[in-house]
Amino acid sequence: MKSIIKSPMNYIGGKGKLLPQLLPLFPDNIDTLHDVFAGGGNITANVISNNYIVNDINIYVIEIIKYFYNTDISVILDSINYYIDKFKLTKSNIDGYNECRKYYNSNKNPILLYTLVCYSFNYQFRFNTKHEYNNAFGKDRSCFSPTLKSKLISFITNIKDKSVLFYNYDFLNYFENIIVNQNDFVYCDPPYLITTGSYNDGKRGFSGWNEDHDILLYNILDNIHSNNIKFALSNVLHHKNMTNEILNKWSKKYNIHYINGNYNNSSYNSKNNSHTQEILITNY
User: Fold this and answer.
1) How far apart are CA 237 and CA 239, in angstroms?
2) Which of 42, 212, 273, 282 is most deeply buried (CB count within 10 A of its CB)?
3) Digit-coded pLDDT (tens) for 34-50
4) First-residue to last-residue Cα distance in the chain
């Protein structure tokens, strides 16, 4: 397998660590990859396809990836360094971080947000109901390190070689507006019903996730299957002492692949995540 290109964004639930297990399970000869819940873009960066559609309900994440795609790498790096210098961002300067965060919430632009996230706690994207970025400072831990810079350059170089379209739909509007054709591949990595994170609690300015959303998505995937189009769904079947019964029942119609998940940086995990069972469901 070729080297994995990891997203330079630590988006909760990102599939960077699971890619060695997931990629061999994806189909060959894809015309268009529909990355419906794209997050930080790990899937798009590593799946081979003729065309790509990157979609996520979080407009700010989409704007960052789109900025990376459309902007020269030298300009991106110069912009990051400009904001680092402007706010004197370091691992210890909390005042500079808070000033940068306040400035961003009044002067929003994608590369400023990316720079801010690089110095935030666990590099996470966290907003309040007013869509103000409110993640805490990553004291003595987070920074735009040489390793992160290298990861950023690799990711940008990779996506610039692809034919990519970007959208900011919720999943229902996505499938109402985007045509899925034969030889396309639909990949869905929705919020997980039986876990709780800042991406699915409905308190961060974006829609939450509940049983109705699960059912609606599964119905859409059934329809995609009836049209002989391939799909894959990532999800969690068991977590702690809970089972997603809706998923458990629906998944039996398809192929279930058990994945060894590891989300040590995700807020919804307990210290012992041995009872969390990640799965990939495919219709092929």
Assistant:
1) 7
2) 42
3) 999 999 999 999 999 99
4) 21
Closest CA to 199 of 190, 187, 186: 190
How far is the C-alpha of 194 from the C-alpha of 239, rounded, in Å? Answer: 7
Q: Where are any strands of DSSP class E within 18-81?
A: 30-35, 49-55
Cα separation, 82 vs 197, whole angstroms: 32
Residue pair 11/40 in contact (Cβ under 8 Å)? The answer is: yes
Contacts made by residues 136-139, CB under 8 angstroms, sequence distance 24+ = 137/94, 137/97, 137/98, 138/91, 139/91, 139/92, 139/94
Residue 199 has pLDDT above 60, yes or no: no
For residue 211, count other CB atoms closer than 10 A to its CB: 11
pLDDT tens by residue, 182-198: 999 999 999 999 886 55
pLDDT in tens, 113-124: 999 999 999 999
Task: List the Cα angle 22/249/225 in 5-degree steps.
Answer: 60
How many residues are given for the chain?
284
Angle in degrees, CA 81, 85, 88, rounded to 5: 130
Task: Look up residue 218 and give its amino acid.
Answer: Y
Q: Are 262 and 269 in contact (CB under 8 A)?
A: no
* Residue 140 CB neighbours (<10 A): 9
Return the closest-CA partner of residue 280 out of 239, 243, 246, 251: 251
Give the Cα separation of 79 and 85 in Å (integer): 10
